[in-house]
Write a structure and sequence with these properties.
Chain lengths: 347, 542
């Protein structure tokens, strides 16, 4: 009796497995797909990205499989998978990480005229092993009612005594802060970078915590006057489904510091890509004017393709001059930046 | 003659399958642990000099305070509910387990969303009463806040274990004390506390393991602990060796905790020879006392379950139009499907190993039972990479030049099994413990084989333990995060991973629907466990 129950349970189990996701057959589901399709490892998980990939599939008939994860985890995974890796493309939301993948010997050059024409040289790796897809600035957001934006115009100004107890910023574990410090290190050397980080630490309104939105909210709440954050979060807050968040975003102003530290989301072609041609087609598609417009507009980022104009909202914040630095440096100096943060005690 | 029987014990289908299972559990873990013996590098010196102290202090503070408060709000309602009759007692009896349905990281996002400047409390004060309060008073994103979050969502581990223990063990002692005219407080202090000590420690060690392993809450609140440090060192600094050293330190910590649990339990075993346990006759409370007791239980229920759930429901209402599409149903299905499959496998494996351990009293069997629970004491991220390396190795061994097994659903399910085998195993083991060995021996004496005895005698008796173990594992897998994030196949999301992605992209409203579904399914499972307990009288979650 019990035995037959057991067998029945097994039958049901097998039945469920074989009828598993209607779209895929039993073995595909259990053992994964055979290739011929582009396999993308990405740490961007916006619904807009998925929408773009769908458009690509419809236009070309090439299927794209997506594996999402943290950028560092994905890089570690590609490294461990070695020659056998499934990954054809790697997308991360930080140039420093793309550089790390390159430094680990995981990428190869993207030799496509189309891509090189679409994306300017300063937004590409020196050897074209990765190219940018979107650009964001790390800016200061200020309380409109308490701060005259003309009082602050460079990153160095953030260390001035008058901002003691006024600055809000998230933890140093965050890659955006690491890349910002790495850029200052690359431009001005270790001494400058350390003094800058210490100066900001001294001026903090509270111990670092929360995400970028939380910093803007804290400015509106009066905990501090200035917050260091990425541009696109203000765009997202202005369009939030929470009316209170919209209010917060309207209370703060965006100030580009000169020269502005920019970072990118970008894509790299893996060294052992099995579907190289199709993968390059996908990069061509993502860097094309049409995709770039969609990419940037839906997520309030700046397009990497210069033929595409930024959205009206972004244009309303005005123009800015960017740091004169190859973005590869963000990766080269990441380790030093992390060590400075740890040594001075920026949590 | 005797010898041949012993041999049969060693080499039957049970012990052979157990051996194979144990090897599979051991290999990926050993893969990682071997890294401990590699020499320290420069990163390690940097970590030791600047960071280690904070990791240790923060982790210790979190563990100690969460442990203390969880015991407080776990034990007191457990005691009240087993001792007294008061309004809504039957409802609280099971609803106080419900906070377990809410993953702590979702609880943290929810409470912060509720309390922060744009949350409902402060905005109502501002918009309707014109009061602007100092937001510092509502700040939850600090170590105190983390202790609050862990306590309020993890205390049910202690509540469940102490309640079922009290229900079974306290009747004669408490009644004797009552007859001798002792007050409720004296009974609590001199009888309940000492006899529940082992149960408290058992539940407490679960809470401690969860706290040490959690990544979501501390990352969001910006608190550096061992688990954030392991991620940071490994993935941020790209330094596997130092990360493994940190894990090893953490494991020493964990084994310390488990050892304390072991010693405090002494050699005690609680098995009974009949399946009937006499329930305690409850004292009926009335008037102000009844009100106070009900109010206390309500307060815990409201803070631990009702408020966060209502907040999530409100957010779901704001965002459902954007979220509910075909994809959403696909990943809900994925989530439930893999959780079910892995839970079934875990229970089958647990039964095989636990039964082998029970019937063969040798050293090897003792080792099995330790290995089976190994995965639960290793951080999820560390297990994930151990398994990844193991599968890549397997694929190399197969030698097709491609990754056939890696990045498949098989790999993910394998990881779940290793990580959560302990929960299923403990459940089944305690089921076997309660049944004892006498029925098994009687059946064997009467000539039935081990396997036949298992199906005819043992399985029916441990059935409640099987079902409650299954449901507990199911809950854990539905809530699981680090393994899923690192090991999932292409085009594969689960409810938990999707909720985490939205939340970490700072889209908490969009995360709400996935969270609500996780909570809803977990609630059903908890209700199932409760029903099972009520139906059988004696069997409860262990």
């Amino acid at each position: 009796m019990k035995k037959s129950l057991f067998i029945l349970a097994l039958v049901v189990l097998v039945g469920t497995v074989s009828s598993a996701p209607a779209s895929a057959g039993f073995f595909d589901f259990l053992f994964g797909k055979d290739n011929g399709e582009v396999n993308l490892y990405t740490n961007r998980h916006y619904d807009t990205d998925e929408e773009l990939l769908k458009q690509f599939e419809e236009e070309t008939g090439i299927k794209v499989n997506v594996l999402k994860g943290g950028s560092d985890e994905l890089i570690e995974r590609i490294a461990r998978e070695g020659k056998n890796t499934n990954a054809d493309l790697l997308i991360t939301a930080d140039a420093g990480r793309l550089h790390r993948a390159k430094a680990a010997g995981l990428l190869q050059a993207i030799d496509s005229e189309t891509v090189l024409n679409n994306i300017p040289a300063n937004l590409r790796d020196e050897d074209n092993q990765w190219v940018a897809l979107t650009v964001r600035g790390r800016v200061v957001v200020y309380a409109k009612d308490r701060v005259n934006p003309l009082e602050i115009s460079t990153y160095e100004d953030l260390t001035a005594d008058k901002w003691r107890g006024k600055i809000l910023v998230r933890s140093s574990a965050n890659i955006y802060n690491q890349s910002l410090l790495a850029s200052l290190y690359a431009l001005n050397g270790e001494k400058y970078a350390r003094a800058w980080a210490e100066g900001v630490l001294n001026n903090m309104a509270r111990a670092p915590r929360g995400n970028d939105r939380a910093q803007a909210t804290a400015v509106a709440a009066g905990i501090g006057d200035l917050a260091i954050m990425n541009t696109y979060y203000i765009g997202k807050m202005l369009n939030s489904s929470n009316p209170e968040e919209v209010k917060v975003a309207k209370q703060v102003g965006v100030r580009f510091l000169e020269p502005t530290h920019i970072n990118v989301s970008g894509v790299g072609l893996t060294k052992h890509a099995k579907n190289r041609e199709n993968a390059i087609k996908l990069i061509e598609f993502l860097s094309s004017a049409k995709a770039q417009k969609f990419f940037a507009e839906a997520n309030y980022e700046y397009p990497a393709n210069p033929t595409v104009e930024a959205s009206a909202l972004l244009k309303s914040w005005g123009d800015f001059e960017t740091q004169d630095i190859n973005l590869t440096k963000l990766g080269e100096f990441n380790q030093q930046a992390v060590e400075i943060f740890n040594e001075i005690g920026w949590q | 003659m005797l010898k041949r029987r012993n041999l049969k014990f060693l080499f039957n289908i049970w012990s052979i399958s157990s051996l194979i299972i144990i090897m599979f559990v051991l290999i990926p873990n050993a893969n990682i642990l071997l890294n401990i013996f590699k020499p320290a590098n420069q990163n390690w010196n940097h970590i030791k000099e600047y960071l280690l102290k904070d990791y240790i202090i923060n982790s210790a503070v979190l563990v100690l305070f969460t442990g203390f408060f969880s015991i407080l709000i776990g034990l007191i309602p457990a005691w009240l509910i087993t001792q007294y009759q008061f309004p809504f007692r039957n409802f609280f009896k099971w609803s106080l387990i419900l906070p377990l349905a809410i993953p702590p990281y979702i609880g943290a996002y929810t409470y912060n969303g509720l309390l922060n400047y744009t949350g409902v409390i402060q905005t109502s004060l501002r918009n309707y009463f014109g009061i602007s309060v100092n937001p510092i008073y509502f700040d939850i994103m600090n170590i105190k806040g983390a202790i609050f979050i862990y306590t309020i969502f993890l205390f049910p581990y202690i509540y469940i274990i102490t309640r079922s223990f009290l229900a079974k063990q306290s009747a004669s002692l408490v009644e004797a004390a009552r007859t001798l005219g002792r007050s409720s407080f004296e009974i609590f202090w001199y009888i309940i506390l000492p006899i529940t000590r082992t149960a408290i420690v058992a539940g407490g060690s679960l809470v401690v393991l969860e706290v040490l392993n959690d990544y979501g809450v501390v990352k969001y609140f910006g608190i550096t602990t061992f688990s954030t440090a392991i991620f940071k060192t490994w993935f941020g600094m790209g330094d596997l060796i130092s990360a493994v050293r940190l894990s090893a330190l953490l494991m020493i910590f964990v084994f310390g905790v488990l050892l304390i649990e072991k010693f405090s339990r002494g050699g005690k075993r609680f098995s009974y020879s009949t399946t009937k346990v006499r329930p305690l006759s409850r004292t009926k409370l009335s008037g102000i006392k009844a009100f106070l007791v009900s109010a206390l239980c309500s307060l815990i229920f409201v803070i631990g379950f009702l408020i966060p759930t209502l907040q999530l429901l409100y957010w779901s209402w704001l965002s459902y139009a954007k979220i509910l599409d075909v994809d959403f149903f696909i990943f809900s299905f994925n989530s439930i499907f893999v959780a079910l499959l892995a839970s079934i496998l875990i229970i089958i494996i647990s039964i095989i190993v636990a039964n082998t351990v029970r019937i063969s009293d040798n050293i090897l069997a003792k080792v099995y039972s330790k290995v089976a629970i190994l995965g639960y004491s290793i951080p999820g991220a560390v297990i994930a990479v151990g398994i990844l390396l193991f599968f890549i190795g397997l694929d190399k061994f197969i030698g097709s030049g491609k990754l056939i097994l890696t990045s498949t659903i098989l790999m993910l399910i394998f990881a779940y099994i290793i990580r959560f085998l302990a929960i299923g195993y403990n459940s089944i083991e305690s089921g076997f413990d309660k049944v004892g060995k006498s029925f098994f021996e009687a059946s064997r004496t009467l000539g039935l084989g081990i396997t036949k005895t298992f199906f005819k005698v043992d399985l029916p008796m441990i059935k409640p333990a099987v079902i409650s173990g299954f449901l507990l594992v199911l809950i854990e897998i539905l809530k699981e995060l680090p393994l899923t994030l690192i090991l999932r196949p292409f085009n594969f999301d689960t409810l938990a991973s999707k909720a985490f992605e939205y939340a970490s992209d700072e889209m908490i409203h969009e995360a709400a629907i996935s969270s609500i579904i996780i909570i809803f399914i977990c609630c059903l499972a908890i209700y199932g466990i409760h029903k099972l307990g009520a139906g059988k009288g004696s069997t409860d979650v262990n």
